[in-house]
Amino acid sequence: MQYSYLVVEGPHDLEFIGCLLRAHGLHKVHREEKLDAFWHPLVPRNYPPGGDLLRRVPVPVFFQSTRHSVAIHGAGGIDRLVPTVEETRSTPGFKSSEVSSFGLFLDADWQTPVSDTFAQLKAAIQAIGLPTADEPGTVNRVAPRTGIFIFPDNHSLGTLENLLDDCAALVYRELREKAQQFKPAKAIQASIEDNRWLCGESLTLPNIATLHAFLKDLIGL
Fold first, then answer.
1. What is the torsional sign of CA 170, 175, 178, 183?
2. pLDDT digit string (tens) for 107-118?
């Protein structure tokens, strides 16, 4: 079994990456008894976390197949990406040395050039003892594999929503035109999980294909 640990900014990023994993036969794990024992140290046993009744229980979402097991952790913001990796690696009982790949996924910051954002994250990742690739959207070859992907395409300012809009223009053309004048009430992450944003057609879109290739390379799909 190959184990991969991914950290994203928020729930919509998590579901989008999850959709790409499902295209390779990985399924979301809903029951603890179905979860690979490797990840059990990351499942919280005490509530409330840190005594905070309003804080969400900090547990990743898990996807797995017969060959791959992937944990995706929502960090809650760019500033929490690397600290989340560090905290997870130091979790008592967690064998972080057996993780084959680490990945970070984030939106391009509207106030900061993509190159600067990547440089900051690269330095932070190296500071906690992990190797890094030299460019966003590429994978480091020294074990463990690591990579940083900055939405939408590793060089333009924007967000994951730019990729969703690209998908909508292809698979939901009429609804997209109407939606530009109407705000839906459904949460983005729920829509990503329930609807066919990522399908055979949309997987061939240039920016989606680039993200898909990065994920396959990072995890070894």
1. negative
2. 997 788 999 999
